[in-house]
Request: fold
Amino acid sequence: MAAPTHLDHPSAHISAGPAEYPHDALWDALREVEDPELGISVVDMGLIVDARPDGPDGPDGPKGATAHVAITYTAMGCPATELIEGDIHARLRRVPGVRDVVIEVVWEPVWTKARLTEDGRDALALLGVAI
Amino acid sequence: MPKTEFSAEATEAITRLIARIADNKYALGRHYAEWCSAAPTLESAVAAAAMAQDELGHARALYPLLRTLTPAAGAENEPETRTRFTHMAVLDQPLPGWEDVITANFLVDGALTSLFEAAVDSAYEPLAGRSRKVLQEERMHAQHAASWVRLLAREGGGIRAALEASLRHAWPEVLCWFGPEGDGGDALAANHVLDATPDALRARFLAAIGPLIEAERLNLPLRRAGDDTWELTEPLPWDRFDAETHRLAHGTAAGAVVIAGAASAASQAEK
Reply:
């Protein structure tokens, strides 16, 4: 069976209002990774499309797991991609049970401001960015 | 949805398509970047920088597809080590004037956008996924092009003449770039990689740019043939068209352009 992808299991709630994302070990760890240009969490920015461990053990299981992250960017020419992906690698490898991290850059769904969380919108507003 | 399996012929056509889109995006990005500190206004310099970043980003998202399509090509799949580029010949050299930047923005980038519009539902899924994001970013580029075409055209005199000369220089190659006329056997359309034949793509492109050319009375070989249809009033120079690269010879061979520095480095490495 093919590994699940973000398209099989949409893991975010995107609607007309602020987006909401799951709370688990991986997502909460990702909330600590910031977009280096804005200082806003990559989750609040809506960059994380999916985050899940493979296999039945999950991040807290005895054998450990690979964390699969699907990420998109606000712009295809984003100059901070390597930095962000490096920070994600480093942070997720500190999640108990995670042995490896695989990051897939996806361009669907296309990033729009609808992917911002309420905290993300507030943070951008403080920076003077109109939403 | 299961992934589409392509024949060897279709895979070769897809490879050439991705290469020529990526090469054009890469060349556009480099040439826009040359104007980041030389544009006529501060705002347009910032726009040139933003567009350069976008174009290089689009290229960066496309080149990795070549690794999957032609893994044996090795270093030729990477923009940094690639020696044979298939961008349009009008992009071989730095764009000498601001009107040439606007021509590249309006015609070259516009043609690329028409192609991405035809790939939104592509059977080649990696292209479909990227197309929607590219089109989101290209909206600003199109607005920039139209605004500057209007501005330069309305300046009149030498500025308008320079714009028209630049547009006329790029015109035949951009229109040929979509592919040969009457090519009913086009592998890309037949395999639903693109949703139209080269003729239909060319017609869509003309429908997109025709109204502005008409409104500004720009002296280009184009006339309205119906509400949304346009026809060329001069034949395209197919004798100078290279079917493999979709480049047009401008006094030199139309085949892939060899970037001197990269070729020289590769040659030295072989020794």
